[in-house]
Amino acid sequence: MKVKIILISIFILAVSVRLFQLDQLPGEWFGDISNVHEYVTEILQGKWPFYFFQSPGPLYHYLIAPLVIIFQNNGYLTYKIASVAVSLLGLVTTYILYRSVFSSSIAMTGILLMGSSFWFLVWSRLGNSQIVIPVISGLMGYFLVKFIRQANLVNLLLGVLAASLGLYTYPQTFIFPLIWLAVLTGYYLMRRKWRQGALNFSISFILLLVFGLPFFQIVMVQKDLFTSGYLGEKVVPVFRTNPLDTGQKFLTFYGKTLMLFSFSGERIFRVNIPGKAMLDGITSIFLLAGILYLILEKRRKVLFIILFMIGSMIIPASSPGINEIEIPSSSRTIAVIPYLYMLAASGIFYFYNIFKKKAGNISAILAIASLVMMIVYFNLDRYFREYPQVLPDKNYAAGIIIADYMDRNFGENFSVYFGSCCWGEWGQPEPKAVYYQMRKKKNFVEYTHYLSSCKEINHLPAVVVVGPGDQKLLAEYRRCFLQAEIVEVDGKKGNTVFNIINIK
Question: In this structure, are 441 and 292 located in the same domain?
């Protein structure tokens, strides 16, 4: 009963930090969310899309489609709610993974840390599809442990199925089937069970081929994408360069990727405070302590599997074909989050045992609880206080502001054009960020590009969105449409957010 109460409290905290100010942070709809929206829209229209849209595959979009039906017409918030739900599913799969390997105390500690982790929290609320990756990596690990302990066909089947889902998720998860086969092979080699190992490897390999058939079909249909397109350009060039140079570059990138955890993190503003390590300092210490704990407790096989999972899952993120500015990447390494916090939770338990011997049980509990609460506080402070300051325009969401203005002031008979776009930091707001967040229909919306000339307007009455301070462009529209009304729309601080040209 006590365990259930603590576990429920942890999940309440995880839900609370995911829903707090969710409609405000992060604020601006961006290109990746447009991609998710367009894919899910095709699903809801009954087109049954089954392809890779740049990097993401079909899995996440089909998974969240029911939630989009429930929360549709809520703009960006719809997709943030969907990613919150998937992140909570990730915590559930992580908990059952931890519980299958360690005690309930370590399992609960682990998901408390992971649930409040800045790294995981960013992706939990972002609305993008990478958040499904920890769900799959956790499931794969769970069924791997179950099969090692209970060598039955059901666990093997479910484990291979979980690994196969990586083929339909992201390029960095294509390695999951290989990881399954490698861990299984390594385990049986260590146990010297050659015949049983060969049999289970063969069954796994055949099942992977069966589950991979739809993926092979995707590759054939989207051959250009996988050879010279968005995905191919990150891999194919590797085979055209000197092997020695390629190897050196891979090792350099791999080292930078390892530094991501505790020393130097991703530099992309939207998913991190640029350059800051993805784990806080205390968690990093506990992670090292967890490695020591498993060695001292003679659970070296468990440690080997955890370290192998971490080490192999970051291989795709270190591809020499990736632009160096994208190294390290928190999105391409997100699969390792459950395994990092597994080690950190073990380290906390190791410190607890040390404190318990020196100061007694109550003092040890209070000391460890204080350290854990400090970790939770540092991560939440980093997300809710520091993170908004590095978002474009300090998280000022012009896209939804423009969309709301359109809904309030212009009816269905109006057409919408963009005379300029992307005037804010990092190219925001995008026309799609406005169009996809308008809740009321309009006669016509040209959202695929912004106008090169006022002569392109051919659906009247119309409104044209123009960025702040573009007086030359406003003067051009005055000459084109003498009766046009120009309205400056101000923000909360009295600054002009955008201009509206009302053409009747």
Answer: no
